[in-house]
Amino acid sequence: MLLCKLCRLAAGIAAIAVVTVATVHATTADGIAAGKSLAMERSKGNCLACHRIEDGVLPGTIGPPLLAMKLRFPEREALKQQICDATIRNPHSRMPPYCRHGILTDEEVELIVDYLYTL
Ligand code: HEC
After folding, report:
1. Domain containing residue 55: CATH number
2. 60-70 pLDDT per residue, tens
């Protein structure tokens, strides 16, 4: 009986560990590279259509240049929200609401944020 209680406790701890691993996003060099590709790819972020980004060729000028991101967006959640749905901050935004329109997944936005924080 006691043994079984211990089993259940162990199973519970294992389950919590799995959930934690699944929800915490870790920044890696590969992730930053993937985020850069996602931001640049025309069929994904296509951020260059409107923003100047270092290394980016032929950028548009509809939005402000993306630089000093950590300074200007110290809150990761605020930066994610700007990409996921820019209309929350500006209802008339011309920036596509990437998550709401299913253009980028949550994980893809995390990778783009990893990349933006290197700018
Ligand atoms: C169709 C044009 C367009 C595209 C494409 C676009 N944006 Fe924007 N973005 C804007 C505009 C316009 C603003 C100015 C604020 C607003 O109107 O929401 C903006 C604002 C931002 C801001 C806030 C900047 C600041 O200084 O306040 C960030 C960060 C941002 N965009 C990131 C991105 C990323 C990352 C992508 C690609 C995944 C992207 N944008 C794609 C038009 C665009």
Report:
1. 1.10.760.10
2. 999 999 999 99
